[in-house]
Amino acid sequence: MTEANPLIVFTPSGKRGRFPMGTPVLQAARALGVDIDSVCGGRAICGRCQINIGEGEFAKHGITSTQSHVSPVSKVEERFDRIRGLAAGRRLSCQTQILGDLVIDVPPELQVHKQVVRKEADTRAIELDPCTRLCFIEVEEPDMHKPSSDLERVYRALKDQWNIENVSCDLAIIADLQKILRKGEWKITAAVFSRAPGGGNRLVAIWPGFHDRAFGIAIDVGSTTIAAHLTNLSTGEVAASAGLMNPQIRFGEDLMSRVSYVMMNPGGEKEMTAVIREALNTLTQQVVAEAGIALTDVLEIVLVGNPVMHHLFLGIDPVELGGAPFALATGLPVTVPARELDLKLNPGAWCYVLPCIAGHVGADTAGVVLSEAPHEQDEIMLAVDVGTNAEIVLGSKARLLACSSPTGPAFEGAQISCGQRAAPGAIERIRIDPVTLEPRYRVIGSELWSDEPGFEEAVSATGVTGICGSGIIEVIAEMYLAGVINQDGLVDGSLAAISPRIEPYKRTFNYLIRDGEPRIQITQNDVRAIQLAKAALYAGVRLLMDKLNIEEIGKIRLAGAFGSHIDVKYAMILGLIPDCDLTHVQSAGNAAGTGARIALLNSKARDEIEAVVRRIEKIETAVEPKFQQHFVEAMAFPHKTAPSPHLSKVVMLPPRKDIVIGDGNDDDGGGRRRRRRG
Amino acid sequence: MTEANPLIVFTPSGKRGRFPMGTPVLQAARALGVDIDSVCGGRAICGRCQINIGEGEFAKHGITSTQSHVSPVSKVEERFDRIRGLAAGRRLSCQTQILGDLVIDVPPELQVHKQVVRKEADTRAIELDPCTRLCFIEVEEPDMHKPSSDLERVYRALKDQWNIENVSCDLAIIADLQKILRKGEWKITAAVFSRAPGGGNRLVAIWPGFHDRAFGIAIDVGSTTIAAHLTNLSTGEVAASAGLMNPQIRFGEDLMSRVSYVMMNPGGEKEMTAVIREALNTLTQQVVAEAGIALTDVLEIVLVGNPVMHHLFLGIDPVELGGAPFALATGLPVTVPARELDLKLNPGAWCYVLPCIAGHVGADTAGVVLSEAPHEQDEIMLAVDVGTNAEIVLGSKARLLACSSPTGPAFEGAQISCGQRAAPGAIERIRIDPVTLEPRYRVIGSELWSDEPGFEEAVSATGVTGICGSGIIEVIAEMYLAGVINQDGLVDGSLAAISPRIEPYKRTFNYLIRDGEPRIQITQNDVRAIQLAKAALYAGVRLLMDKLNIEEIGKIRLAGAFGSHIDVKYAMILGLIPDCDLTHVQSAGNAAGTGARIALLNSKARDEIEAVVRRIEKIETAVEPKFQQHFVEAMAFPHKTAPSPHLSKVVMLPPRKDIVIGDGNDDDGGGRRRRRRG
User: A524: closest CA among A494, A490, A499?
Assistant: First the structure.
């Protein structure tokens, strides 16, 4: 590389160097460490190494770059263009030789390690760096003068053509190898997995000739639903998604009833393992069919789930999780051949399961951490995933704590008299007029409020069948704001004089939302159930705040189905979550599933989450005396210990029973009127 | 460690050091790197750490050692003695504290890395250093104040108590872990395998409490017979051996007919794989039953075999080995879970298959190399394993070559008119009187020669049914020495005038050994078959000698069943093997199986053979023009190119047809008489 050699500048990286005349651009890029993708290894087959040649004077770089500074379009490029198409101006860098100074632009979609944009706002991008890569290789033919086995020559090709060493493989690959090599006329595509236990690289699949489809599936195994995302390992794009009810529900609605099933039915864990694996295969077949690919194109699967689900899909009896000391069989990350989980993908596919954090804080929470990255925050972040237990992570770069709090299933609509799962017919939004105590509501499946014309027709198909989890939060908060319940959660029976919706029931009072079949009402017991649940959640968070010795939280992320649907304002009114600027409280959607997708697409993310989980301080609420104290204190609305300066900007909380209405920007479609009682 | 501390000298190693009063002897030994075994990690359970306390003045070491310089026998030692027995004077070093200067003797049978003595004379010992070791560990109980999973605490115990890190394990282990930990009351024995692909340690089996049985099986899968040796991984002792006919024989007697079977019957390789694996399981069950252990105590299996057997037991179609360029699917060492070969051992057991050298030089030859160690010799060693092909290794420390020579099945008795496998009734020894041309012979199953009284009664059960491989070598050589055949292998029809045993047959002559049913005779075609076989063998050896540019061979090792049974003198008369001092020609017995046993017992032996096989120069006789030339030249008796100076000490070869009888020290029971013709 003398001064006489042409100067090459790659954008956007800015990497530059001088190369002899005639050097292929791809080779120059590799020498400089510029990320240009290639599956075929420079043979004009895959088309991943496309570039644009800069034209004109580039003052910044001190050179003039023109099309005449590269070799003309070659026969193989013409052939590629004819068969697979090449965008105007694009060249294959493997076929393009340097004949003068050049500015070369690498299109973003063709960069290795490119950023995968996530749909959620305000989230970090995923860097594409999968554990499984495809490598097209040309293998030497056997030569009796230099005898060597076919596999040895495959390994040599991987080393010489892709710099991949220390490779091992399954017997199944060896058994197929000779036929595939000969079918591909000594050209094959090899899939290499870089994270097998122990280390080294693993040859997991081979195809004759050139093959460029490599997919992975990220699955969040929830107690109620299972969600799968088929993802292209080369582009990071989600090719298909599907969800399914967890078929284990027939063994018990919630986690503890499933653990009980195992306790009562020895061997029952095997049944549950079988049905969950069957469900994973069903989902896999759905997404594969939707994307129009072959099952054998699926080379990896990443799973997350709460500890009980984690144990069950791995085939581990979860009974130890049913009682103190809640010991996990393993909380370590699990990397196993997918076939060991009876998963029908490519026979060589590997499965990665994110680490669990503690006995009640599972791989799903690890997924939330990977997605929301509290460990990268300068300010304190609270991430909460609410299910039967609330899994809580609190901290920042400096320190991270996690615990689980026994909220029970009230937030999911269970243990609530009219509660139900989020499904068409369930009330999900509600407003109560503080003067008349009349409710207006919306149900899942219709955009209309109950006081709008056409509502009854719109819901006639399903009826109004109950209240879902997010609806329950709203109705309790609205009852509180309307003065139907007081700070202690007691339904004010004196209001029966004002409204017939306040109905006596045994020695307490109910609030009737809708008369009919079924009759939808909130009982005193319902209020108590929500009080217990929200107190547990708050107490868990408060306990971690004590450990960190903080009073303020910078950001809150609410993960999971419940977290995605509740109105955070109401969550704060009820005191589910501690005080925080409402603009910094966000739903994280299915953050656990997103974490699984990150681990699928980025090898280093696995190192990252494994390291983070090791340093997370695990707090067991059951052995923390302060948890009980926080719990008791958090029963009231809003809790007595920490009035919300942030929330008062939105709604002024009643000093006694006065209510100041907010700015009306919420989705109830109108301002609120002030009502004064007393 | 000050001068004031007692001085401890360990014998036989001579390692010495000073330790504070009260230090346990085992701890001192470990600090000094003295090899004392222990499975229980110093808990007085396993009894492997026994020592003898020296008594008296040890001038050599400058100290006086007495029983009073150690702590008295402790309660736990008394208990061990009561339950398991402790030889007089023996102490458990883990329980014995240093109280003064000591000379401590480590009994040879209790040393780690001890030498395992092999039955064969003049062979190197095996150093005991297995890949799988048992480790008794005490695991911390779960503690809600410091939540961690059971597996994490197992890994921590392995690190803290055994210094074993980077451990992974099968899902099956994780699924069993919680029950076994609780059953063992947090004490378990773990089997750790150190050579899983990729690296790291693999937890392969766990037992509640203390367990000290760990076995491995070494198996040589021959085309005709399969031999298994169950070996104690802690002592190196062979606990049981068993052999079985290879059931694949029903698909074809020899290798090529089995490969042909696959070519003619697509999928036939799957049948052959199934029957061979079934046979391996049958053998395994036999040896395990004989030794009175459980199948789950078998933690490793090592397999060797020729390339076709190697491919078939691994489940690889062997058709490519049936024709040029004879490419192996893999020649690399294979390390796979034994269950992937359908082998029913401990479910966590691993299988190791030695590397193959070339398309016709298999893992069995690698076993021969490991056993006979030509790569460690100063002088040139020839190791030959004769079967349907002769696998030939030649060389020394400096350089090693290997080839395979197509001897055909004549040496195994096939393609010989009266040939048969070595079995009762087969002629195995023969002498021909050079004057009368009368034969005397012995058959397998009787110690009597045919001219001794009682011979006919002794063989009446089986009859005399044919001639086995080693018998054929002798009869052809004796025919030559008696002048029945000339140097060109032609049966001398003129002798029909002297003896009725020379019978005309078509246009040639037969030599009749025994009249009766069956009639046992040697035809001209039989002589030709042996000439072709021996010429092929010799030509292969000669080719390698050319490559090494040598004329002399220092040592010869004849491996395999044929090599073990032939009289090397006759082999040299016929020119099967090149000139060599007869005292340096030895049978190596089942050297391939011995090699498998070495690889089973010594982890470094696997590195060794893998490295040696890589540097062996593979010669393909099919593409070497000189091979044909040597082959043609080697057809005559004795070959014309290299008369034997060594052999002439034993028998003088006929300058024309004169025979000078040797010194009569061979086992034919008497001197020979001289006969002159012409």
Answer: A490
| DSSP secondary structure string for all residues of A642-666 | ---TTGGGTSBPPSSS--B---S-S
DSSP type of residue B561? H
SS3 content of chain B, % helix, strand, coil (to 5): 35, 25, 40
Q: In this structure, what token pair is assigned to residue A546?
A: 């004590």
User: For residues B166 and B200, is the Cβ–Cβ distance under 8 A?
Assistant: yes
Q: Which residues does chain A have within 8 Å of residue B155's beta carbon, measured at their own beta carbons?
A: 332
A-facing residues of B in 655-674 (CB < 8 A) are none
In B, which residues are within 8 Å of A177 by CB distance?
Answer: 329-330
% of residues, chain B, pLDDT over 70:
92
- Quick one: tokens of B260? 């042909």
Nearest-CA distance from A115 to chain B in Å?
A: 30
Of all helices (H) and strands (E), which one includes residue B243?
strand B238-245
Facing B147 at nearest CB: one of A174, A334, A618: A618
Phi, psi angles (nearest 5°) of residue B663: -85, 5
Q: What is the ipTM of this complex?
A: 0.86
Nearest to A174 among B155, B198, B314 (CB): B314
Distance CA(A342)–CA(A324), nearest Å, equals 31
Buried b / exposed e along B279-307 (16+ C-beta atoms within 10 A): bbbebbebbbeebebebbbbbbbbbbbbb
- The residue type found at B424 is P
Alpha-carbon distance of B3 to A591, in angstroms, equals 65
What whole-number distance in Å separates Cα of residue A47 and Cα of residue A236? 17
The sign of the torsion formed by the CA atoms of A83, A85, A89, A92 equals negative
Closest CA to A363 of A297, A312, A417, A414: A312
| Contact between A540 and A437 (Cβ < 8 Å) | no
From chain A residues 269-298, the ones with a CB under 8 A of any chain B CB are none
Cα(B17)–Cα(B78) distance, integer angstroms: 28
Q: Mind listing the pLDDT tens digit for each residue in B256-302?
A: 888 888 888 888 899 999 999 999 999 999 999 999 999 999 999 99
DSSP codes, A348-411: T-EEEEPPP-BTTB-HHHHHHHHHH-GGG-SS-EEEEEESSSEEEEEE-SS-EEEEEE--GGGG
Residue contact A329–B175, C-beta within 8 A: yes
- Amino acid identity at B622: A
Report the C-alpha gap between B371 and B592 in whole angstroms: 7
Secondary structure of residue A331 in the 3-state scheme = coil
Confidence of residue B117 (pLDDT cuts 50, 70, 90): low
CA distances (Å), origin A185, targets A139, A297, A354, B523: 9, 21, 40, 49
Our CA angle for A50, A53, A57, nearest 5°, is 160
Q: What is the dihedral of CA B491, B495, B501, B507, to 10 degrees?
A: 50
Cβ count within 10 A of residue B154:
26
The two structure tokens encoding residue B136: 């008794």
Q: Has residue B659 got a pLDDT over 60?
A: no
The H helix count followed by the E strand count for chain A is: 16, 31
Q: Please check whether residue B351 touches A, CB under 8 A.
A: no
> Chain A within 8 Å of B618 (Cβ-Cβ)?
yes
User: For A510-537, how does the pLDDT look when each residue is reduced to its tens digit (9 = 90+)?
Assistant: 999 999 889 999 999 999 999 999 999 9
Q: Give B336→chain A minimum CA distance, Å.
A: 8
- Residue type at position A87: A
**Rounded Cα gap, residues B497 and B270, in angstroms:** 58
Across A344-356, b (16+ Cβ under 10 Å) vs e yields bbbbbbbbbbbbb
* Cβ-based burial of B120 (10 A; exposed 0-12, middle 13-18, buried ≥19): middle
